[in-house]
């Protein structure tokens, strides 16, 4: 049976269905609700009707089934009647002292987007069903269903006690973490407090959009776009009518439990790192890289930065990173608490000649010097800086000189005798491989067993705090998040002991270095 014939039959039958419902119910409102439920079931099942001759038999079969179900529900539930005056926009929104008006507004804020839009367009804006159908790009029959279904939802909701969740008065602040292929677009995407608390709300329990609204205390009109964006980027996933977080959140409680379990290794690792730096410092200088005459403190930091990168690579890929909503393979997770323990960030960028600028950002804003954001994604800056590191004497354009002036201001470049010079160690590939080799041997001989134990411990604890559907991400994230306990905390110990100083030399970059592709 084609759609036009069906709609014609349905329009003709609507009055008959309503009369049937009036005979079966005690009031007009119930009859309207029941008739709309019948119409909706007919619309849903229209594909099952063989031809127009079978329409009425099918219609009465549906009507009888819907009525029987409605009557069973009515025996179980007593619902208050929604005042017909709700059609007035003055009654709905301008009367402040009427508790019923507050309840209507509350329930409107919890309606799903299409139900809410149809209700407001009809009752508040005075639009006809045809106008609403055109505006929402749906059929007129569906508009009628949405309106009557909304009335039903509103009535039921007004009789409920609604309790806001803890996030409504005590919202969480999450810190986005990323490890994998760049660029890291997850960090900026998750800066929204609303997004953070949506993810938090459905982390341990799958929630409907209405439950998310109540848990966060944010009306659905303000959540709709954020929920869609999170779903699009696979940060949350939909399971039927429920949403659940698709990224791991390491709570403060979980992080503290992991730290307590591995604290016995912190001083051991710090002692081993100190011994490595002291033992290898002269060998490191003897390699003869550019700027090997930097101050002792800067060279300690530079050597330990390479060592830290090697530690991060140990057992790091126990689980291959999944594909993100942006298309890269990366682990995405969030921390509830970011403290001094999270003191580093590392990143690399490449020039057109294959040279690499390697950053090990020290994140303290009081002593910050060097930041991958100064170069990352800016190909022109990267190429100019690597040309300077190569010692190439070029006639820089005025446009390039502006970029160099910015680098001088930030401390990456100095000007000596009309020549520009980089303030970072510059290694050839061969020189860097020698340094990396003795760092690799040290990590393998002295730290790998400890790091594996830390990884296993972290994974076990994180698993106990992680929902079942996210368990496949636990091993990879635990191995990546070991960065805090295997690198940051030992580094903090070395700083506290004053073996490493954050009083940087004014003309030297402490943790940024360049490896030339030669």
Task: Tell me what you see in this structure.
Helices cover 54% and strands 10% of the residues. The chain starts with a helix and ends with a strand. Helix 14 runs antiparallel to helix 18 and helix 14 packs across helix 19. By secondary structure, the protein is an alpha+beta fold. It folds into three domains: 156 residues, no CATH class; 81 residues, Arc Repressor Mutant, subunit A, CATH 1.10.10.10; 234 residues, no CATH class. Strand 6 and strand 7 form a beta hairpin.
List the helices and strands and how they pair.
Blueprint: H1 3-24, H2 28-44, H3 55-76, H4 89-93, H5 99-108, H6 113-124, H7 129-136, H8 140-158, E1 175-180, H9 186-189, H10 193-201, H11 209-216, H12 220-232, E2 236-239, E3 242-245, E4 248-250, H13 252-262, H14 266-286, H15 296-313, E5 330-335, E6 344-350, E7 356-362, H16 379-389, H17 398-410, E8 413-416, E9 419-422, E10 426-428, H18 429-464, H19 474-496, E11 512-516
Parallel strand pairs: 4-5, 10-11
Antiparallel strand pairs: 1-5, 2-3, 6-7, 7-11, 8-9
């Amino acid at each position: 049976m084609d759609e036009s014939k069906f709609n014609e039959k349905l329009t003709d039958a609507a009055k008959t269905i309503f009369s049937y419902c009036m005979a079966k119910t005690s009031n007009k409102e119930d009859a309207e609700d029941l008739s709309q439920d019948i119409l909706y079931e007919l619309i849903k099942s229209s594909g099952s009707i063989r031809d127009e001759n079978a329409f009425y038999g099918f219609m009465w079969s549906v009507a009888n089934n819907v009525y029987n179900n409605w009557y069973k529900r009515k025996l179980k539930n007593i619902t208050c009647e929604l005042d017909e005056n709700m059609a007035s926009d003055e009654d709905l929104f301008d009367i402040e002292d009427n508790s019923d008006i507050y309840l209507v507004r509350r329930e409107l804020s919890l309606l799903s987007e299409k139900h809410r839009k149809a209700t407001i367009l009809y009752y508040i804006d005075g639009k006809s069903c045809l106008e609403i159908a055109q505006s929402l790009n749906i059929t007129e029959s569906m508009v009628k269903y949405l309106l009557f279904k909304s009335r039903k939802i509103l009535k039921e909701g007004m009789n409920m006690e609604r309790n806001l969740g803890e996030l409504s008065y005590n919202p969480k602040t999450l810190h986005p973490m990323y490890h994998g292929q760049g660029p890291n677009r997850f960090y900026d995407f998750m800066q929204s407090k609303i997004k953070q608390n949506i993810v938090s709300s459905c982390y341990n329990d799958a929630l409907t959009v209405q439950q998310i609204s109540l848990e966060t205390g944010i009306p659905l009109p303000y959540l709709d776009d954020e929920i869609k964006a999170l779903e699009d980027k696979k940060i949350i996933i939909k399971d039927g009518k429920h949403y659940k977080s698709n990224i791991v959140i390491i709570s403060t409680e979980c992080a503290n439990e992991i730290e307590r379990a591995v604290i016995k290794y912190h001083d051991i690792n710090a002692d081993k790192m100190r011994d490595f730096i002291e033992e290898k410092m002269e060998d490191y200088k003897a390699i003869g890289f550019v700027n090997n005459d930097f101050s002792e403190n800067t060279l300690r930091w530079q050597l330990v930065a390479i060592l830290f990168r090697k530690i991060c690579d140990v057992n790091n890929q126990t689980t291959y990173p999944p594909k993100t909503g942006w298309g890269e393979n990366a682990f995405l997770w969030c921390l509830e608490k970011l403290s001094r323990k999270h003191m580093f960030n590392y990143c690399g960028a490449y020039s057109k000649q294959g040279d690499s600028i390697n950053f090990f950002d020290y994140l303290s804003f009081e002593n910050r010097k060097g930041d991958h954001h100064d170069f990352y994604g800016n190909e022109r800056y990267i190429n100019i800086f690597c040309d300077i590191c190569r010692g190439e004497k070029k006639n820089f354009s005025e446009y390039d000189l502006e970029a160099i002036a910015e680098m001088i201001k930030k401390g990456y470049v100095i000007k000596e005798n009309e020549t520009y010079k980089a303030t970072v160690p510059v290694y050839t590939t061969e020189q860097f491989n020698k340094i990396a080799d003795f760092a690799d041997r040290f990590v393998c001989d002295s730290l790998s067993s400890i790091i594996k134990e830390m990884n296993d411990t972290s994974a076990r604890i994180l698993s106990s705090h992680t929902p079942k559907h996210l368990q496949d991400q636990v091993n990879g994230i635990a191995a990546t998040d070991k960065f805090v306990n295997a690198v940051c905390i030992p580094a903090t110990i070395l700083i506290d002991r004053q073996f490493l100083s954050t009083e940087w030399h004014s003309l030297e970059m402490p943790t940024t270095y360049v490896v030339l592709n030669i």
